Amino acid sequence: MALVEGAINIVLLLVILVGLVVIHELGHFVMARRAGVRVHEFGIGFPPRAKVLARDAETVYTLNWLPIGGFVRLEAEEGESTDPRAFVNQGLITRLVILLAGVVMNLLLAFLIFTVIAGVADPVWNTRIASVQPDSPAEEAGLVGGRQIDTDSQDRPIFDDSGDLILAIDGVRFPVFDRIETRDAPQLYLREHAGQTVVLSVRRQDGRVEDIPVTLRPPERATTEGALGVNIQALERQDVQNGPLDAVAIGFRRTVEASTLILRGLRDLLTDITDPQVSGPVGIVGAVGFVRAELPPTFLLWLVGLLSANLAVINALPFPPMDGGRVAVSIVQAASGNRISPALERAVYLTGFVLLMALLVWITFFDIGLLDRGA
Description:
Elements: H1 2-34, E1 39-55, E2 60-74, H2 92-120, E3 122-132, H3 137-140, E4 148-151, E5 157-159, E6 165-169, H4 185-192, E7 197-203, E8 209-215, H5 219-225, E9 230-240, H6 244-271, H7 281-294, H8 297-316, H9 323-335, H10 342-367
Antiparallel strand pairs: 1-2, 3-6, 3-9, 4-5, 6-7, 7-8
Helix pairs in contact: 1-2, 1-7, 1-8, 2-6, 2-8, 2-9, 6-8
């Protein structure tokens, strides 16, 4: 069963990655066509070729056997050509636009996914109260806990879900995707506002929603006793809908945050490469499997958006053979009067590819526990 689940997760990740790469390559393809650059092939997957899907006047569209991405083959991407429609014979701006079009496509996809989630079904955290502490701000405000129905193996009380549900604090909801790293965002907000008066939006057991002002305990007591004075039954997810303008703003903000997330991870990786905090293929497969099996479909869609934004940023880095590396080479060529030889250009790309694969293998060792993280 575990092997079957693992195979499903691997196939799902491949489908996601191939889709993201095809969208990326579609950006290159469209901008190359618009610029009049000759496009010989648009491939899904990597060779060897499995099937020709279609042809037009100059481009063949193919399906290939290795399901690890896709590609666009332009006339003279590297080297020299006498064809005026060759990529290498285009002006610098045209080449840069074509090279960066894939990055833009992945960012646009991430923005679209995050915007749709925010507008249609954006999960937020609500806080279910288990019990209210005596002589606490919660008791003074009239908050109600659940009914005790049993005790656990350590004789601790177990409560039902009849307690009040805190929906918002000071009108602030707590979207899951804004604080994906923590489930206690409402409690953090209360601790950060210890000693102040906040307004809790509370849903009672009968369905009524009330706005209740509460003056929280001072910071010195909040640290040990809690700012509000309640015991939490659970954090419950609820999907909410944002208006179109708010959804667009949220989608843009989350795209920026997802893009900077991978940059922070790369910074940490370069700071301490002996203990990488980023995930390789094995770690990503595990994440996909957990989201697929344990969470609603919205979370898998969010993960696709996150991967799309990360793919865009990785490709934009000035490191060969990424698009950003090709951009850097094109700029150097233009600045030097195209004095870089085709052989040197290919050698730079090959060296970068080898280093990238070595880094990927290194991270994968940590993913599967083959290296001692404490070393």
